[in-house]
Amino acid sequence: MKPISFKIEKKISGQLGRAGHLDTPHGAIKTPAFVTVGTKATVKSLTPEQVRDLGAQVVLANTYHLYLQPGDKIIKDVGGIQKWMNWSGPTMTDSGGFQVFSLGAAYGKELGKLTKIPAELLLENSPDIDTEEKPKLATIDPNGVTFRSHIDGSAHYFTPEKSIEIQHNIGADIIFAFDECTSPIESIHYQGQSLDRTHRWAKQSLEYHKSKENSKTQALFGIVQGGRHENLRKESAGFIGSLDFDGFGIGGSFAKEDMKNAVKWVNEILPEEKPKHLLGIGEPEDLFYGVENGCDLFDCVAPTRNARNGGLYTKYGKVNILNSKYTNDFTPIDSECNCYTCKNYTRAYLAHLFRAKEMLAATLATIHNLHFIVGLVENIRQSIIDEKFNEFREKFFISYKN
Amino acid sequence: MKPISFKIEKKISGQLGRAGHLDTPHGAIKTPAFVTVGTKATVKSLTPEQVRDLGAQVVLANTYHLYLQPGDKIIKDVGGIQKWMNWSGPTMTDSGGFQVFSLGAAYGKELGKLTKIPAELLLENSPDIDTEEKPKLATIDPNGVTFRSHIDGSAHYFTPEKSIEIQHNIGADIIFAFDECTSPIESIHYQGQSLDRTHRWAKQSLEYHKSKENSKTQALFGIVQGGRHENLRKESAGFIGSLDFDGFGIGGSFAKEDMKNAVKWVNEILPEEKPKHLLGIGEPEDLFYGVENGCDLFDCVAPTRNARNGGLYTKYGKVNILNSKYTNDFTPIDSECNCYTCKNYTRAYLAHLFRAKEMLAATLATIHNLHFIVGLVENIRQSIIDEKFNEFREKFFISYKN
Asked: Which of A94, A179, A286, A334 is catalytic?
């Protein structure tokens, strides 16, 4: 008996994209779906009821953060992440690999999941520029990663087995194999070495997982890496796809223009019948690309982080609520939006809350942005069911400008 | 037709205390009642639905803060404070007098509503110690107060008429006359001068209010001052009580032990049939003293401010959730409490949220603390109706330790 089951309901004609249904031990996820991020076992500024009411189906927490605070043992003792955070629906945890990247290769370089990177750094034989940078907080060896806590500077060591053990303790429905997320500006030589490591770690993660009872109630997704290189991406999809994972994550830190290619290369090779999660991606245009290229799940901190900074999604694009023209604008953020925030509050009031640095600003803005993004993916799903994906896509981008 | 009507339902035998029913244009308030503070037109970290669900009947916003940000005209334009903040129940605004005190006499001295003050400073003939302190942000003249905005340093001038005009624009159901809140360490000479000013301003506030249409829909409460001096307090109660106010506020910055006396002196003189609001007081022991000495309404930032700092009320007294013993305590804050927080979250999770500096910490803690204080006053009310006030009081303090 597998912990999850996935069924494709409808495909986009002539493309990789599909609408599906993913059953987990804590309920179903209709895919494609946007996974709400709750890094430290809370979706920032919202109660779980607010998360559910805005339409979210599933929450993803971060292994690295919860391991450091409060510690995975405490979450195990209370009965798992659902009980810990009072969220009764499906949950996921990542493997910690991306945080290791943030503390290591990306440290001090402002590299994120999607980054605008100068063309000269993206040449096939670009030098490894890491050597002259400031000291990293993480170092990688063949067996794992040593890193320092961002909270108290204490030293820790993650191996694939350790990452899975922590994720077993946290107890989410879907967990991820331990991987190395590389920077797009690393040399192809480094990318190849790293990929070998990620593949070895994937096998170790899977073996450790299968050896435990938790594999009956928690699904394990393998992660495809390979940077921006077609040969490496395809090699990774072939290798990871051949292993008995319950689903797959597509990882990486991307130059924006590379992301689409990477997703397509990979999903043409990965087993069609298993769910695919595009890790850390969530702006509207990227969601469309991801869906049409066969991704079923997406998570991203952008909607919640943008919300806390006053960047609000509308059908015309993002607006900055702190713009002075909203000071006495008594209309909602988006007049056609039916989220709690738009039904009850004006732009003027939101602008006031942001200026007054009131916490309710973050709450109302987060509800709106998550409702927008979760709802967008829900509408994309419906358009696939209705065989109108391309029309829906076209119509969306006539009004939405980035 | 008066904007509000007040009916005494039951008195505590042999004491000034009573349970009553206060009708306002936006619904009834069963008294005694704790008024939830929403300084900047938001109860910090809560949605209005969360405020209502925890049992709050009425919200008080601050005139000084709303005048500066977003400006009272904007609130008038949108249709008043209820519409502005999406709170459909009764509302109040204070007069700005206490904020002027905070910027003036109290500035840099850590004086609040209740302060522990060295005995030598409370002598009848204590010198006026103001002269040697750092520059104040507010200066008082016979006609009003000049103050500087805490936001941008801009200069502003409040008169009684200006305060009432602003409160008319904000549009709360119950508003307050402009007063000077004095420091308990001012000399009796200064207290007397100040009281004359407050009385003159009370008359001006009332005359201006009565000359406007708003007096049909907004009730005006006069404020009794007089510091810690029996003769001044009684003089003030006699004078303010003789004016045609809809109700009364009892103001002042108190040395804790003085507060009880002041309230009793005043309420023995003020017209019995009108509602009385003890301004800015809200710790459990003070609520009991206030009720038994004839106060019907209370507001205080303590429950919400304590909550944001991790100080949580229980029937045994306040606990600091950051105490290390709560790290893996899987019980609720108070096992007999039926608030949303106690029904759904453990002390361990709350401790985690506070340590992780997550906003949900403030939300959950605020819900609990307000539920505790609002519920306490509700239970005090019921004990009066049931003729069991003294037993209830005694029982409460057997377990509750400050």
From this structure: A94
